[in-house]
Amino acid sequence: MRGEMGEEGAGEEVGVDEGGRGVGVLEGVQGEESEAESEVSSVAEPETFEDFDWLREHLLLYDVIFQTDTAKEAAFIEGAAALFCTSRVQGPYDILEPGCGTGRLMLALAEHGHHVAGVDASATALEFCRERLTQHGLTGQLQLGDMAKDEMGNAEYDVAHCMVSSFKYLLTEDEAVRHLELVAAALRPGGLYIIGMHLVDYEYYAEQGERERWRELREGLCIDAKILSSPPCPVTRREEVDTFIEVKADTSPEAPPIPPALSKYQGRRFHCHWQMRTYDLEQLLATLQAVPALQLLSFHDFSYDINVQADARLDSDQLTALLVLQKQA
Ligand SMILES: C[S@@+](CC[C@H](N)C(=O)[O-])C[C@H]1O[C@@H](n2cnc3c(N)ncnc32)[C@H](O)[C@@H]1O
């Protein structure tokens, strides 16, 4: 199935599941492998992969993998602002992205005329982001910092957002709560904080954890990524995540030539490991309640449709959460 054609290339999703991490596929490993899954399983053994930190090196790989839903995510942020934001009558809005990474959403929102700012702990990601904005004749305010420790502003923003489970990079309750307090301080009263993240089902994934798989095309390259997560534990709430990436040439007839700067990636395989904190719906709601300055207004899922509410009951089996929180006066 061909995904959306972005300005920077074509994305190809290989299968779709409602629980996908924003892009690509999320599959419980308890069922039979799909054709796509068995295909990616046939990539080389893990020891042939080069270890790397995908948030600090070869940022293009990270950026390609997460590109698929960018337009939908940006539209959701703008739709939520138009519906719920009361700090400003209408856009353009002042928008903050804690954990902005390579700035794919900053670019999409800046292109629509919003004033964008991003905070990230990775200097290389910020550099990628700065160059990308500059190449498009746009600017953004970029801050190297820790989104759980450093001030991100004082009543300066109408909207803040943190998509693709970046909130789960905060590994303790103290960090998560402090982060929410810092975002609340950065927002104007009536402003919004939008969080998109995966939830876990501790029972369903207790044995084997989860798998996700993406295949994306950009600038003549085909990037195949497989993500394996350890079984989530409701006590430690630490998920060990391994990503295996294989970069090949895009052999489709319409593929553009690979630019010289990117040819170094062709034929290489990469591996990275990181940790995330896990949340089920109850745990997420408990963390949010610790910061009354942000009140939950609206609950959605990764269909990114602002007009469709998701099921926010504790007994639901909702596995993606797209939350709209509002800064109280
Ligand atoms: C999954 S990426 C998401 C990037 C971007 N928000 C997007 O949607 O494409 C998570 C980002 O959060 C950053 N990050 C993780 N922990 C952080 C922290 N404590 N403070 C600031 N940035 C952090 C990482 O460096 C990375 O760029």
Automatic annotation (TrEMBL):
The region called Disordered is annotated at: 1-45
Residues annotated as transmembrane? none
Which Pfam families has this protein been placed in? Methyltransf_25 (PF13649)
Annotated GO MF terms: methyltransferase activity
User: Residue spans with biased composition (Acidic residues)?
Assistant: 1-16
What the entry lists under SUPFAM superfamilies is as follows: S-adenosyl-L-methionine-dependent methyltransferases
Q: Which InterPro entries match?
A: Methyltransf_25, SAM-dependent_MTases_sf
Q: Which residues form the Methyltransferase domain?
A: 95-191
PANTHER family, A to Z: JUVENILE HORMONE ACID O-METHYLTRANSFERASE, METHYLTRANSFERASE
What is the protein name for this chain? Methyltransferase domain-containing protein
* Origin species: Monosiga brevicollis (Choanoflagellate)
